[in-house]
Amino acid sequence: MNRPTMMADRTDDDSDINVVVDTRPRTKRPPLYKVLLLNDDYTPMEFVVLILEQFFHMTHAEAFEIMLTVHKKGVAVVGVFSHEIAETKVAQVMDFARKHQHPLQCTMEKE
Ligand code: TYC
To answer: The Adaptor protein ClpS core domain covers which part of the protein (predicted)?
Structure first.
């Protein structure tokens, strides 16, 4: 899109005379992913707070507030990360919840 173009010149097929080199850097930022925590009726509130403190580095007050948001609204974004980090966070939360036999669900989606 909008790159300098090479005009075909009948007189110099196969030569590089008319090649325009695009010097603009073409780096793309990697996509970011939201990590979402979902509400359920069984996971204890304190357990959710613990997860937000441990895996998302929130203070107790921040963790409590986000936990209450999930409890009341059904879902909240708990962080935004690269694909690899988001995947790791989701796995950590799901493993920890499973280990403690809580049905807590954590997912990710492209921002
Ligand atoms: N709704 C749960 C309860 O009343 C608490 C809870 C909050 C569960 C957030 C999951 O992601 C969650 N014990």
So the answer is: 28-107
- 8 Å CB contact between 90 and 107: yes
- CATH code where residue 54 lies: 3.30.1390.10
The β-bridge partners of 85 are none
One-letter amino acid identity for 4?
P
Q: Among 47, 50, 62, 70, name the best residue to mutate to test ligand 1's pocket (greatest count of ligand atoms within 8 A of Cβ).
A: 70
What is the band of 34 on the pLDDT scale with cuts at 50, 70, 90? very high
Shortest-distance atom of ligand 1 to CA 44: 13
| Domain extent for 101 | 42-110
Q: Closest ligand 1 atom, CA of 70?
A: 9
Q: Which of 13-17, 85-89, 92-96 has the lowest mean pLDDT?
A: 13-17
